[in-house]
Design brief:
13 helices; binds pyridoxal-5'-phosphate; three-stranded antiparallel β-sheet; about 40% helix
């Protein structure tokens, strides 16, 4: 049996998204910047996609900018706010330790350019509080960027409250909503969001296309220089097929959100319930504030990488840490930010399921994981020390 349980890394392209993009790969190949009617038809498709996406998050179409993905949107939002801040002599940025690297590495670069960055600790339940943000705010704070939902553990942050605080203090608020878009309701007005990033391939559109939402009057600076596309804020001929597919996929995901989640949540809860029966295991992140499909657990005495390889032999695609860091031997920065010891963080497993998964697939996972964990523990010298009392169990 083949089971794809890595939907937080990427998703398959839906039929709706594929159908939407095909005309733009075939007959509708005009450049939307050209003036003749043949291209104007394409331009119309572009603006329709913009309006569709705006509606899904309660924004105005003028506040939607198409990018090459979530990473680019995060980069542009953060760099823009930093530049505006620097002009006013404000060079302090607040973020969290468990952001995606698209945010963390951008902040690192800004630090080298003289910005001061406060990375908030994450509480053991995987949530940052409004008080944490409030206590970190300074006179010279020019940006708060806190992710909507974490990509490894699936915890959802108090975005609305953080946004309200930032409004009150007059500080721009950006959120990386890549894991939330299409899976949870987003209302940029009600949630006090000034800038937001999303990525098509996390909700059944193709890879390589994303959105930066920037509230009216939020100044943007270009990351990509060139032509005047996207109202001068993002050069490059538009990825038309990707953009229309993303709009179709987001619309579909938002329209079917409740029924999708009603399918996903029981599968997720069954995974949690059954895998928690494995001795010396631990669920990472509070289940109270959670995206529907992400399950993250640690199993003591094993290596997450070995678990992944053996799951792969059983046809199961899963992940330990994020896709971008697997392959490196360091434990996930997200799990460490929760205060997990290195030894425990090493034995992590992320299963992220979507509406295309079935209960039969969940059963297959539930059958395989306990057996594999037991087998790996049998072979593990660390487990031996834990069982003979030479080493203390941490979970
Ligand atoms: C996937 C992901 C990104 C990166 O998006 P790309 O479109 O792959 O560049 C950024 N942030 C989070 C939280 C993600 O999960």
């Amino acid at each position: 049996m083949f089971v794809y349980a890595d939907n937080a890394a990427t998703t398959s392209v839906s039929k709706t998204a594929l159908d939407a993009m095909i005309p733009y790969l075939t007959e509708k190949y005009g450049n939307p910047s050209s003036l003749y009617a043949f291209a104007q038809d394409v331009k119309e498709g572009l603006e329709e996609a913009r309006a569709t996406i705006a509606k899904c998050i309660n924004a105005s179409p003028k506040e939607i900018y198409f990018t090459s993905g979530g990473s680019e949107a995060d980069n542009q939002a953060i760099v823009s706010a930093a530049k505006v801040g620097a002009r006013k002599g404000r060079k302090h940025i607040i973020s969290t330790k468990f952001e995606h690297h698209a945010v963390l590495h951008t902040l690192k670069k800004l630090e080298k350019e003289g910005f001061e960055v406060t990375l908030l600790d994450v509480h053991a339940d995987g949530v940052v509080t409004v008080e944490d943000v409030k206590n970190a705010i300074r006179e010279d704070t020019c940006l708060v960027t806190v992710m909507f939902a974490n990509n490894e553990i699936g915890t959802v942050q108090p975005v609305t409250e953080i946004g309200a605080l930032c409004r009150e203090k007059g500080i721009p608020f950006h959120t990386d909503a890549v894991q939330a878009a299409g899976h949870m309701p987003i209302d940029v007005e009600a949630m006090n969001i000034d800038m937001l990033a999303m990525s098509g391939h996390k909700f059944h559109a193709p890879k390589g296309v994303g959105v930066l939402y920037a509230k009216k009057n939020m100044p943007l600076f270009n990351i990509i220089e060139g032509g005047g596309q996207e109202r001068g804020k993002r050069a490059g001929t538009e990825n038309m097929a990707g953009i229309v597919a993303m709009a179709a996929a987001l619309k579909e995901s938002c329209e079917h959100m409740e029924e999708n989640n009603a399918r996903i949540i029981p599968m997720r809860d069954r995974l949690f319930a059954e895998l928690s029966k494995i001795p010396h295991s631990k669920i990472n992140g509070s289940l109270e504030h959670h995206v529907p499909g992400t399950v993250n657990m640690c199993f003591e005495g094993i290596e997450g990488e070995s678990l992944l390889l053996m799951l792969d032999m059983n046809g199961i695609c899963a992940s330990s840490g994020s896709a971008c860091t697997s392959g490196s031997l360091d434990p996930s920065h997200v799990l460490l930010s929760l205060g997990l010891p290195h030894e425990v963080a090493h034995g992590s497993l992320r299963l992220s399921i979507g509406e295309y998964n079935t209960m039969e697939e969940i059963d297959h996972i539930i059958e395989c994981v306990p057996k594999i964990v037991a087998k790996l523990r049998d072979m593990s010298p660390v487990w031996d020390e834990l069982e003979t009392g030479k080493r203390k169990h941490l979970i």
